[in-house]
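Hey, I was hoping to borrow your eyes for a little while. I'm sending you its amino acid sequence along with the backbone structure tokens. Take your time with it, there's no hurry, and the full record follows here.
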Amino acid sequence: MLGLLQTALHLYFDYDKIGRPLNQMGMGTSSEQRPVGVVNPVEQFKLRLPNMLRHVGIISIVSSFAGPFIYSLTVRKLAWRTSIFWARVFRFDIPHAADLSMLPPYHYTLILRSIVSGFLLLSLWQVSNLAFDIYVVQEPLKRGQPISEDSRDPNGVLINGLRTKKPLVKAFAFWELAKICQSFPNRRGLIFRDIDRPGGPAWSQISSECLKTIQAINTRITEYGQPSAQQQALSKPQEVQSLPRIGAPLKEGQVLLNPPPPSTRREMMETKVGSFAKSIGNNPPTSYQNPLSPKTQQYLEAARNKLLTPEQQQAITPAHVQTQLNVYMTRFLQSWLGQPFRQTFARRVQSIVFGQPYSELLLIVDAIESLKILATASIKEDDYGKVAKDIPLIIRTFIITYQSLERFMATLPVHWTDVNFSEDQRRTEDVLSVLSALREGLRELVEVFGGYSYEIGIEKGDLRVARGIAGMGDS
């Protein structure tokens, strides 16, 4: 029972969620400066341990007092019968009239043992989960340097991590890239100078992976508005394949003359089957079309008028029954029992925008921050000028993604199970974080490259839209 309770709490409070902060610090942040929420692991453990122990103590005490009572009312008889059955299989001296003992479910020794054992078991579960939550979100640094720094090819290891299909490795690779862009100018310079790599310069490969991650938002939103492959297959007309011929071919010549009498057993069988089919087709049964005779229908109508009042007849109409079912369903969904069955607006937006089953929120924000910082730093650090030609594409991608998110949040219909929805819930927190990162990225890109828009190929329309999104006006 304690395991079932812990499972319910684990699912309800979402203990599996990893609370990693977003990387929105900007360029020039030292490795010692941590974003809000990133604290030393030991300090985090000290801060969260008292609350965790208090939580464990309350659960162990409540379950110790309620557990024996619930056990005696629900599980005890079944456990006793099962134990007696297997005991009789191996021992034959157990009487058939063996009954349950009448000992009360509460005894101080049992309560004390339950509290101690429950407290220790719950502490083990909670401490393990707490340690995982704290240490798995530590920055991808080793002795104050990016974890790929020890490799012979740091950029190659980083690019392979960005391209991998493993979600955990990919998440740490994007996180490391964001940390490199924010706090390690030497590694940024190494990315700009690495132009002779297989597959193209390091900047081109890194920016390509970041743009793919950002453009995936538009792809998922577009695919949501289109019918699925299964629906397209159902709506597509299918070719009807003719069945194999099982009868004789059609006759040629004088088909109106009476056929000769059948001479073989097969011809006799075909003649009998054909005659039966013709008789059914010429005289179709009427009982399938109208199973009740008019007189029977009159009797039923008179009985209904005599037994039921007009209000009762109205209450059993299909429309009224559907209305009542809708009322009961709404009440159920509004209660705490219906909470797991609600498809809230925020949950649907997050699953569509950030993907499923694993959210790509952190990857998207890291990709936006990395592109923004690398692009703005290239003014001084890109000696070969490889970044300038990609600035128009980056700005256009930011604009399209921002507009697509704004339009999607404003037009996404509300699911019928979201009974507590209000219009102010359309601005979900996670999507607002992405919009904020895109808006800040456009602002810094316009500030740095706005004066060189003609030289690097930024279109006037894109520049004007970017200024409007960033709130800079048409200067």
Q: What stands out?
A: The chain has 19 helices and two strands. Confidence is low (pLDDT under 50) at residues 25-37. The beta strands are 141-142, 145-146. The CA atoms of residues 58 and 119 lie 9 Å apart.
